[in-house]
Every structure is written in structure tokens, then in C-alpha cells.
Design goal:
Enzyme class: oxidoreductase
Radius of gyration: 29 Å
Structural class: alpha/beta
Bound molecules: CIS-heme D hydroxychlorin gamma-spirolactone 17R, 18S
EC number: 1.11.1.6
Protein name: Catalase
CATH topology of the largest domain: Catalase HpII,  Chain A, domain 1
Function: Decomposes hydrogen peroxide into water and oxygen; serves to protect cells from the toxic effects of hydrogen peroxide.
Pfam families: Catalase, Catalase-rel, Catalase_C
Largest sheet: 10 strands, antiparallel
CATH class of the largest domain: Mainly Beta
Shape: globular
């Protein structure tokens, strides 16, 4: 008998089973599909139709849940096992599909089919990442960015697993676990995550002078990119091209963003992390889904043994670059990212990059870091993906035929035909299995190797400071100021003064002014210089190393935050929107309330964001257009005041139109507006503003230079 407390039985038919097909915005593809199925009916993993997905099976209306409810148990069982280990480094990432198109045949240099002829297209998948943070960390950490590309070539996958910085912290892979342990959360407390600004990282870095060059890049604005779409990529190591005749040349790979390089400033990065921790992934997703496909040109630096021998540094040392001024970067193709993933886990999380994936025509060198990576990447995939058959996952599977005698294993999805599963065998036809390709296979470059077996660091790897100095001296004043400020910030977060001092002592070997400015910023006396393992080699500054020196005059791919108050001149709003869109930018309308603002002509302009949720750090430039009533309302709104103050502090070009005086005043900017604060109320003003935003930030406001 039901008691008084008994609740009425819930709906017998669940919403999911009854209404799902009508509710779906897409084609139902978000449901897990059984083979060949486009079934609108919810099923178990084994295909049985599910009667009710809202109520588990119970004895009596309020009784215990029954073990025989296999559909419920299967659902919970699967859920309990949803997570796989995140990557030990580069855990946080985002990716997309694309295509690489070769500009010219490189067959004189390499037999790699990607470079076979002009116009040749090869499918790609790219994953960008931060290094130190966990999967759920924020995008704008000061960190190196991974830039890993899988080319599905017709002779097997080529994984170019690079970074957005062309050098690395260490010279030998045996130090990689130490490096990573030093930068990750400290093991006794579990913080800080996603940052190098703590004792253990700088302890390690200061004790490993070979990392100095990389720390300069890491302290530069390269480590806080505006967008994945606006950063370079590098293969880092020296690789080898091998042509059909078996002749080899050294090669370094470069990705150059078509939108040009751009970074944010540190104070902005800190705030973006709070306002939108997904800033970079959202940016990539938005651009691709809007059809604004990001592109990079692939460049190669090709050089022979004679250059390598004459070069002041060892080309096998990953803490060194080959300056573009010495070996120009030759553009050989363009990659376009044109498709977002359908499922983040299936594709971005399960993609398995491996440096050892090289097709015929591309080979390794003896860079000890690369040699170590060639072991690590295969090993790590087994840990993460749990089966030796991870190469069968759609995102990892080669697009060319695959035929081998490896068998079975967890989650084998291919039904391998044939009788013989060994080589050699004497079977014929389809029973005999694949045969070796011989000279058509991946033939290793026949390098001569000799010498005693020893644990030793070659003398040619000893110079840790000359290229660090070259990098610093190649930066503009503003960029040097940012590097100094970053060292001061990071070392200032170290609680152990001896660590700060040891790092500054190393920096004296890079540049005396750099060390003095960092010491001054830290409020400490300048320590004696540490002993360098090798004397400095004089290097010419390399203009290619500066971001600002190479800035592209464009607003393409950038975003305007258009803050509109009630009574704003409708024509002025339209002009700004049109001008910025024509310049290749996007416009996001912001108002005091997300419902929008009423313009001078009485129309309602819908807003994408309320100002409280859209701080100006999310935009490359801002415009405020308002009538008198709206102007006062904005001045009274703290988020609107911050919007303007921050835009000014971050050196952004600002457009102002209508009744903005009260807001300017409340933002503390009265009397401070400069020539990058433009009046945009008139047609001429809007034109001047659109022309100005293609240019640099207003660096004259930057006092750190
Ligand atoms: Fe990696 N690195 N790495 N690394 N790395 C990994 O592989 C490793 C290094 C890079 O988006 C891991 O699948 C060693 C240099 C990228 O999935 C792991 C050494 C460069 C990604 C690993 C290095 C990179 C990784 C972790 C020192 C720039 C992300 C998860 C010898 C050229 C790929 C994984 C993605 C990921 C090992 C140094 C780039 C553990 C041992 C130098 C972009 O295998």
C-alpha cells in the first residue's frame, strides 16, 4: 500500500527517448552511434533500445534500485571510466583539422610526398597547447605553446611536434623529467599550477645555465600570444631531408602566421585568464566556424654540413637557433585550418603525436633531445590511451594503406585477414601478407657514427649565453622592457633570495643592463656574474627575432569591443561596424545590459555581452559610443570605467563618440587622452580610427621601456 509520503510516479516516458529527434539542432550525431546507425532511439552500448533514461529500475515506487538494471549499470560504469590520464606535459590544448598545400616541388631535397609537387594537398590535424598547466588550467599562462601538426601523407603520418619558441630549455632528454618537475606544481603543496613563477622552476633554471636562452624567450611576449592564429611555430631540432638519391641536407622547420605575430601584455594576460580562461580555444573555434580560416606558411631553412661546421654553434644543440639572416627561411607551402573537431575528446584528447612518425624523405639527426623524444612519445601514448592499437583511432589512423604483422592487443578494431602473421613466410596471394618495400621504404640517412661510448656533453654545446644575448639585443626597447618586467615578476615570486641572486648572476653573462635592471626591479644588490662555461661569441642582432619589429599593418583577425550606451548615434555605430568589418576585423557589441542599447533613431541594438562580462582585455581595440543618458549610466557602472581604464593602460587604440566625457572622467583619463584616442562620431573620424587600428598599440604609454 502506498503511504501518505509516496510521491506520484514520474513520467514513464523519458524526454530523451520521446522527444530527442525533434529537439536535436544537428543531425543527432551527438548521440553515440552504433555501426551504420542513424537511429533516433536511445540504446545501450550493445544496441538494446532503452525504455526510460530518467528512472532506474526499482522494487516498489520508493524501493531499492535493482542490480538487474543493466542499462543503468552500463551507463554508470561507462561514466566512471570516462577520464584517461591527461598528458604529463601539454595537457591543455585545442586543435582543428586542416590542409597543407605545397607551393613548389622540393624533390631535389626530399622525397617526402608532401613536398612532391606544387599544388599537392595533404590533410593535417593541429593541436596547440600550453605546457605546464593541467587540462583545466587557463589559456594565457606565461608559457611555451605547443604547435603539433600531423600530416596524413600518402606514405604515412608525419608528425611535426613543435613549439612556438625555436629553442628549448635543455640539451639532453635525460633532463626533461627534472625540467618538468621543476615547473609543475610543487609536490608537497600542489601549487602553483600553470606557471613558472615559483622557486622550484627558477632554482632549476638558475642551476642549468643552458636554459638561459630559452628563459629569455619565455620572459618575452612570445609566451603570451594574442591568439594561436598569431604565433609562429618551430620544429626546434635540426632534421634531415633525404632525396631519392639518398643525399641528405639539414633542415629546420618554421611556421609563419599569415595574420602576423601578435601578443598581449602581461597585465592583460592576467586579467584575460579570469575573464575568459578559454580565450585561445574560443578564438580558434570562433574564427574557423566563421569561415575565417587561419593560415600559416611553412618555411624551411636548409643547410649542408659545410655550413653546420662553420657555424659558431652546434646545429644539434636545441638551445640554439640558426638565425634567419644567416640561412633565409624559404616558404614551401601553406597550411589552412578549416574544420573544427566534432568531438573534443575523440580528436583533441586522443590525438597521439610522435616525433618518430616520419615519412620517407624526412629523417632525424643526432640532436640528443630529439633522440630522447623518439622514445618518449610512443611510450606516453600507451600510458594515455591504454592500448598499443591507438594508431587505429580515427584521428591517428594514417590515410594511406596500412599493412603489417602486428596482431591483436587491447581494443583491436581491425579484422586482419590472411593466414600468415609472420615474416618471412612462403604463402602466396592474400594469405602471405605484406612484403618489405626495400629502397622505397623509409631508408635511414647513412650517417657515419664513431667514437667511444661515453656519457658526455660535447664541448660544442658549452656556450649558453651568446645567443641569449643576441635574442635580447634583437628586441625593441619596449620588448626589452617587457622581458625585464617578466624576470622581475617571476623572480619576485620566488621566496628564496638565493635563487633570485643566482639567476641574476647568470643574466650578467647575457647583458649587463638586463641584469642591472632586473636586480633593480627586485630591489637587490647586483650579484657577481656567474662563471660561464665558454666565452661569449660576438653575434649580430637578428631583426627576425622581434615581434614588434615585424608587426604586420593589419586589423585582420582582430576584434573590436564596441561599447554602446543609450542614445548613441545610430549612423556612427553603423559606420564603425562597417569600417572595422571591412578591415577584416570582427565587432562585438557590448552594452550596460545584455538586452542592448536604444540608439538615436529609436532602434534597439542587441548586445552580445553586458559590460560586466566583457572587460576590454578581451578585445584588440575598444570604441565607446553613447548619448547623454547612456553616457552617465556607463560612468556610474564600475565595469564600464574599468573597461576604459584598462584599454588605456594596455596601450590600446580607443575610439570615443557622443557623450563620453563623464565616463572618461570617471575612468580617471580626463586630460590624459593621447593621439591613439580618436573621436569616431564623424565619418572622417571613423575612417581615421579604422586606419589607426591596423597599426601598433600606443607604446608611448609604456613606461617600462
Ligand atoms: Fe614534448 N612531450 N618532450 N617537446 N611535446 C609530449 O607526449 C618530451 C619537447 C611537444 O599536442 C608528451 O603525447 C621529452 C620539445 C608538444 O599532443 C611526452 C622531451 C618540443 C607536445 C613528451 C620533450 C616538444 C609534447 C606528453 C625532451 C618542441 C604536445 C604527451 C627530450 C620541439 C603534443 C605526449 C600534443 C608532448 C616528451 C621536449 C613539443 C611526454 C622527453 C623540445 C607540442 O611524450
Amino acid at each position: 500500500m502506498p503511504t501518505k509520503k509516496q510521491k506520484p510516479a514520474a513520467r514513464a516516458t523519458s524526454r530523451a527517448t520521446k522527444d530527442a529527434p525533434q529537439d536535436h539542432i544537428g543531425n543527432g550525431g551527438e548521440l553515440h552511434q552504433v555501426a551504420g546507425g542513424d537511429s533516433p532511439v536511445l540504446t545501450t552500448a550493445h544496441g538494446a533500445p532503452v525504455q526510460d533514461d530518467n528512472n532506474s529500475l526499482r522494487a516498489g515506487d520508493r524501493g531499492p534500485t535493482l542490480l538487474e538494471d543493466h542499462a543503468f549499470r552500463e551507463k554508470i560504469f561507462h561514466f566512471d571510466h570516462e577520464r584517461i590520464p591527461e598528458r604529463v606535459v601539454h595537457a591543455r590544448g585545442y586543435g582543428a583539422h586542416g590542409v597543407f598545400e605545397c607551393h613548389e616541388s622540393l624533390s631535389d631535397l626530399t622525397r617526402a610526398s608532401v613536398f612532391a609537387e606544387a599544388g599537392k594537398q595533404t590533410e593535417t590535424f593541429v593541436r596547440f597547447s600550453t605546457v605546464a598547466g593541467n587540462l583545466g588550467s587557463f589559456d594565457l599562462a606565461r608559457d611555451v605553446r605547443g604547435f603539433a601538426t600531423k600530416f596524413y601523407t600518402d606514405e604515412g603520418n608525419w608528425d611535426l611536434v613543435g613549439n612556438n619558441i625555436p629553442v628549448f630549455f635543455i640539451q639532453d632528454a635525460v633532463k626533461f623529467p627534472d625540467l618538468v618537475h621543476s615547473v609543475k606544481e610543487e609536490p608537497d603543496r600542489g601549487f602553483p599550477q600553470a606557471q613558472s613563477a615559483h622557486d622550484t622552476f627558477w632554482d632549476f633554471a638558475s642551476l642549468m645555465p643552458e636554459s638561459t636562452h630559452m628563459t629569455l624567450w619565455q620572459m618575452s611576449d612570445r609566451a603570451i600570444p594574442r591568439s594561436f592564429r598569431m604565433m609562429e611555430g618551430f620544429g626546434v631540432h635540426t632534421f634531415r631531408f633525404v632525396n631519392a638519391a639518398g643525399e641528405g641536407t639539414f633542415v629546420k622547420f618554421h611556421w609563419k602566421p599569415v595574420l602576423g605575430m601578435q601578443s598581449v601584455v602581461w597585465n592583460e594576460a592576467v586579467k584575460i585568464n579570469g575573464a575568459d580562461p578559454d580565450f585561445h580555444r574560443r578564438d580558434l573555434f570562433d574564427a574557423i566556424t566563421a569561415g575565417d580560416f587561419p593560415q600559416w606558411e611553412l618555411g624551411v631553412q636548409v643547410f649542408d654540413d659545410a655550413f653546420a661546421d662553420a657555424f659558431d654553434f652546434d646545429v644539434l644543440d636545441a638551445t640554439k637557433i640558426v638565425p634567419e639572416e644567416l640561412v633565409p627561411v624559404r616558404t614551401v607551402g601553406t597550411m589552412t585550418l578549416n574544420r573544427v573537431v566534432d568531438n573534443v575528446f575523440a580528436e583533441i584528447e586522443q590525438v597521439a603525436f610522435m616525433t618518430q612518425n616520419v615519412p620517407p624523405g624526412i629523417d632525424f639527426t643526432n640532436d640528443p633531445l630529439l633522440q630522447g623524444r623518439n622514445f618518449s612519445y610512443l611510450d606516453t601514448q600507451l600510458k594515455r590511451l591504454g592500448s598499443t592499437n591507438f594508431s587505429q583511432l580515427p584521428v591517428n589512423a594514417p590515410r594511406c594503406p596500412v599493412a603489417h604483422f602486428q596482431r591483436d592487443g587491447h581494443m583491436q578494431t581491425s579484422t586482419q585477414p590472411g593466414r600468415a602473421a609472420y615474416e618471412p613466410n612462403s604463402f602466396t596471394g592474400s594469405d602471405r601478407g605484406p612484403r618489405e618495400a626495400g629502397p622505397d621504404g623509409h631508408v635511414p640517412f647513412p650517417e657515419q657514427v664513431e667514437g667511444p661510448t661515453r656519457r658526455i656533453r660535447a664541448a660544442s654545446f658549452r656556450d649558453h649565453y651568446s645567443q641569449a644575448r643576441q635574442f635580447f639585443l634583437s628586441q625593441t626597447d619596449v620588448e626589452q622592457g617587457h622581458i625585464v618586467a617578466a624576470y622581475v615578476f617571476e623572480l619576485g615570486k620566488c621566496e628564496i633570495p638565493a635563487i633570485r641572486a643566482r639567476m641574476v648572476a647568470n643574466l650578467r653573462n647575457v647583458d649587463e643592463s638586463l641584469a642591472a635592471r632586473v636586480a633593480d626591479g627586485l630591489g637587490m644588490p647586483l650579484p657577481a656574474a656567474s662563471e660561464a662555461a665558454a666565452p661569449l661569441v660576438e653575434t649580430e642582432p637578428s631583426p627576425a627575432l622581434s615581434i614588434l619589429g615585424n608587426a604586420k599593418e593589419t586589423f585582420e583577425g582582430r576584434k573590436l569591443g564596441l561599447l554602446v550606451g543609450d542614445g548613441a548615434d545610430a549612423a556612427a555605430v553603423k559606420r564603425v561596424q562597417k569600417g572595422v568589418t571591412k578591415a577584416g576585423g570582427t565587432v562585438e557589441v557590448i552594452a550596460a545590459k545584455v538586452g542592448g542599447a536604444t540608439l538615436s533613431d529609436g532602434t534597439l541594438l542587441e548586445a552580445k555581452q553586458a559590460v560586466a562580462g566583457a572587460p576590454s582585455v578581451l578585445y584588440d581595440t575598444v570604441v565607446v559610443l553613447t548619448g547623454p543618458a547612456g553616457g552617465q549610466a556607463l560612468a556610474d557602472e564600475p565595469a564600464a570605467r574599468d573597461f576604459l581604464t584598462d584599454a588605456f593602460t594596455h596601450y590600446k587604440v580607443i575610439g570615443l563618440g557622443g557623450s563620453t566625457d563623464a565616463l572618461v572622467d570617471a575612468a580617471g583619463l580626463a586630460g590624459k587622452l593621447d593621439d591613439a584616442c580618436l573621436a569616431v562620431g564623424t565619418a572622417a573620424g571613423a575612417t581615421a580610427y579604422v586606419a589607426r587600428i591596423a597599426g601598433p598599440r600606443q607604446w608611448s604609454r609604456d613606461l617600462s621601456a
